[in-house]
Amino acid sequence: MNSIRGEIPVTISSCRRLKTIDLYSNSIKGEIPCTLAQCSSLQSVILSSNNLQGSIPQQIGLLQSLSKLDSLQVLDLNHNNLSGYVPLAVYNISSLTYLGFAFNHLVGILPTNFGYTLPNIKELILAANQFDGPIPASLKNLQNLAILGLYQNKLSGEIPKSIGKLERLTELYFQENDLTGHIPASLAGCRSLLILNISCNRLHGSIPMELFSISTLSLALDLSYNKISGEIPSEIGRLISMNSLNVSNNQLSGEIPSTLGQCLLLDSLNMEVNLLNGSIPDTFISLRGITEMDLSRNNLSGIIPSFFETFSTLKILNLSFNDLEGPLPLGGIFANARNAFFIQGNSKMCATSPIQQLPLCVTSPPTRKKITYIVAVLVPLSTLLAVTLASVAIIILKRRKIKLPRNQSLKKFKNLSYADLFNATDGFSPNYLIGSGRFGLVYKGRFNSEIGSAAIKVFKPDQLGGPSNFLSECEALRNIRHRNLIKVISLCSTFDPTGNEFKALILKYMVNGNLECWLHPKDYGQSTSLLSLGSRIGIAVDIAAALDYLHCRCTPPLVHCDLKPSNVLLDDEMVACLSDFGLAKFLHPASSMGFKDSSSIAGPRGSVGYIAPEYGMGCKASIYGDIYSYGIILLEMITGKCPTDEMFKDGMNLRMFVESSLPHKIFEILEPDLTRFHEGVDGSQIMDGIKSCALHIANLGLNFSEISPRDRPTTEEAYAEILAIKEEFLTVCNRESWQSL
């Protein structure tokens, strides 16, 4: 590892006695010279982690025929930009013990006979390319093979049953391909296996019990993201030395086997997103060394075992979205709400302490005190009922004499004068202007009172829909309150000195501006974005939390109708808040309290690029319109591309741009700053974690922005999905102890 630059000279052919070329991790560019084949004494060629491009020279395969007995044993071309087909002659270098082409752009089908032509191969690493076709059955003949890495390709078909004849195989990586069929029971023949990863394929059927007879299988077993069904065999308890087990995101059913508690060395357990039921096994008390456990999004019932409180090594515990009940334990990982434990989506759970952010548990009074208790409750209730009825009667009588004000939506807020706002903005000076929109201008105001700094949104009275937009926003904000919604401080509804109508809202000032200026910093005079993937995921969760509140917790539900990055504001801690409710609509007929919804405004609801397609066809506002806009924002957050970017023309749009790049070209469409945060970090799991999270966000964005509203998820489902990605990201951060992600 040095800083060598330039190209490999063609004159290298003169080095006839050269045995080793090791230029690992430099800045070598250009193509591999075909004259390299004339170095007839070469035993090892290591050119990995450079910037080599072009194709692999056909002449490389001649190295064996030109060499002496000490012929080529190592050919390492991993992590370059090589493309095209691998010359068949390369697969015929029978002396090779290591062959690595991983993380390039190579294509083609793996030769059906290379199990016969590489008899001495011990490590075969062809991962992260674009190889397609089936896995050759002739692999069974590679009897010296210890590590086989074919992951992140486009390989299809079934896993060959003959793979079980590789008795010396220690690591098998087939993940992220397009493999189908069943998991072959013959894998049990790989008696030396330490790691088996066949995740992210389309495998189906049940887990063969024979798989758990591999006593050496100890470092990792990953069957996640397939379509595996049936119950988990009780034989899983045989893997007593297993460190990491992942069977998540399948269709597994039945109860969690109690025998899993026999896997005493488990460090990580992932069983989320399945159909598992029953309670959490009592035998889990034996898993004292576990650091991560995810059982979320199943149908688990019963209580959370108290023994989790005693697990000193447990860092992440996810039990969310099950059917658990009873009190939340108080000790251990549960002692601090900031710890990485997740229990949302369990509606029957309760808390014994107010700090646990759950409904408090209700306890029944002792039986022997029941009569005293009833008397003590009924007497005050009877008195209270009598007083209440009398009060109601008085109110009814008074309402007959008092006429309601025309605009009750204004009554909620304290009214400031025009002079107050004039002085706070230095006469509405352009120097105080921080934003503008269709219906008004936004100034930063400085008040001498306890208000301090605030954002002042002045509505344009002469703009079509301006006055009704003001009333709409007042009505929308009057009765809603949430951490992720903009806070209204006051309002002003009066006339300016010239006699013109003047209306303004005074809002909490958000020091970090809006999401748009962070996603597109160059449009705001900044050179680069400082918004990491972790920050973007956090903001996405905040937006989803706000929508969940508006759509599912408000009565009646409220639809925002203009969701876009410029309407997502960020406070000093980068907490996101939705703003601009001028186009918002309650999902019920307009009340008699003077609120006129903005449906009379010409044109569809929302902003170009973010408007749900059905709005353009005259359909009524619905929560699925907001979900569509949210999906577009997610795609914009990971790509850095605005949906109205000039590149989107001739029928191409942001959604199609992302869809055409998944899953194998995800890094090509990512906002460059997302990966720039992690340059220089040595750890492939970090980049794998980033890729996985980004891929999930992209798929969510596509799912949320489906053309038909019927194909989009509900708000609760959307919130749960983005929470799951946050949990996955936290897991990556915790695993690598790298908090700058």
TrEMBL record:
This is non-specific serine/threonine protein kinase. It catalyses: L-threonyl-[protein] + ATP = O-phospho-L-threonyl-[protein] + ADP + H(+); L-seryl-[protein] + ATP = O-phospho-L-seryl-[protein] + ADP + H(+). The chain crosses the membrane at residues 371-397. The keyword Nucleotidyltransferase does not apply. Its EC number is 2.7.11.1. InterPro entries: Kinase-like_dom_sf, Leu-rich_rpt, Leu-rich_rpt_typical-subtyp, LRR_dom_sf, Plant_receptor-like_S/T_kinase, Prot_kinase_dom, Protein_kinase_ATP_BS, Ser/Thr_kinase_AS. One of its GO terms (cellular component) is plasma membrane. The lineage of its organism: Eukaryota, Viridiplantae, Streptophyta, Embryophyta, Tracheophyta. It is a single-pass membrane protein. Keywords: ATP-binding, Cell membrane, Glycoprotein, Kinase, Leucine-rich repeat, Membrane, Nucleotide-binding, Phosphoprotein, Receptor, Repeat, Serine/threonine-protein kinase, Signal, Transferase, Transmembrane, Transmembrane helix. SMART domains: LRR_TYP (SM00369), S_TKc (SM00220). It is found in: Cell membrane.
